[in-house]
Amino acid sequence: MRFNKIRLYFSPQRIDRYLVASGNSKARAISLYKANLRVAQSFHPLLGALEVALRNQINTILTAHFGDADWIINQKKGFMVDPSLTYMDRRRGVRVVNDFLKMSVEKSERRFRRLGIPVSSGKIISDQSLGFWTDLFEVHHYKLLLGRPIKAFNHLPPGHGRKEVSERLTKIRLMRNRINHNEPVCFKGSCIDFSCVEDVYSAAIDILSWIDPELVSWVKDINGVQSKIAKAKAL
Predict the structure, then answer these.
(1) Would the pLDDT of 11 be above 80?
(2) What are the distances in angstroms from CA 10 to CA 30, 31, 104?
(3) What DSSP string runs through 51-118?
(4) Are 103 and 116 members of one domain?
(5) Claim: this prediction has a pTM higher than 0.90
(6) Looking at the structure, do residues 167 and 144 belong to the same domain, yes or no?
(7) Whether 170 and 234 share a structural domain
(8) Residue 90 belongs to some domain of the structure
(9) Which of 152, 178, 211 is the last residue of a domain?
């Protein structure tokens, strides 16, 4: 396909960034664009395994904490609406309610009912975004849960806790959002730079190993991130 047609279909704004970074070489710009897609694509198996393992571990921990297999539904009237989640923003002079978790659960319930699918805790859990699970490690929810979410990580290194887990999960969540919205992952400013994805990859490996080191070995045969980054950097 000719460069002008590629530029037309994928938008000048998008393609021209690759063109500038490639020294106005049309061939290199398209190679870089495809390499960016391959790197993004390579993250899906790794992030998928991480997200499922993370949410199932947290669900196990919170089921035991609440003594309730349906905690994700029943806590809409529990910690998800604790008074401490409502506060006054003095700068704006408005009352703020942090009901993200509750709204996320209710959104899933409405969707299932609209589709005629029976609502169950299992379906609600699997329907939550990565943002739902990472938010449990933010200070406000973490305190309400008495720090229980950290118990999902049985292999944390000494000196590591909520902060280190939260920082890595935030990096992973932001990268996941970039990938899912087809945003480039190969730039730092206007320069070609894969350091960000390399950092996120390290964060993902940390999270998996902190849950269980065997998970890192288990995903090895479906984990092509490093090889795709290496090929992209060689362009």
Answers:
(1) yes
(2) 11, 14, 32
(3) HHHHHHHHHHHHHHHHT-TTHHHHGGGTGGG-GGGEEEETTTTEEEE--HHHHHHHHHHHHHHHTTPP
(4) yes
(5) yes
(6) no
(7) yes
(8) yes
(9) 152
pLDDT at 40 over 90: yes
Phi, psi angle pair for 144, to nearest 5°: -65, -30
pLDDT at residue 190, as a whole number: 86
- As for how many domains the chain has, the answer is 2
The pLDDT of residue 167 is: 98
Residues 48-94 pLDDT 10s = 999 999 999 999 999 999 999 999 999 999 999 999 999 877 777 78
What is the phi-psi region of residue 68: left when phi exceeds 0, alpha when psi lies from -120 to 50, beta otherwise? beta
- Regarding whether 235 and 163 lie in a shared domain, the answer is yes
Range of the domain at 216: 41-57+155-235
| Final residue of a structural domain among 134, 152, 170 | 152
Q: What is the DSSP string of the chain?
A: --HHHHHHHH-HHHHHHHHHHTTT-HHHHHHHHHHHHHHHHHHHHHHHHHHHHHHHHHHHHHHHHHT-TTHHHHGGGTGGG-GGGEEEETTTTEEEE--HHHHHHHHHHHHHHHTTPPP-HHHHHHHS-HHHHHHTTSHHHHHHTTTGGGGG-TTPPTT--HHHHHHHHHHHHHHHHHHHTT---SEETTEE--HHHHHHHHHHHHHHHHH-HHHHHHTGGG--HHHHHHHHHT-
Q: pLDDT, tens digit, for every residue of 163-208?
A: 999 999 999 999 999 999 999 999 998 899 999 999 999 999 999 9
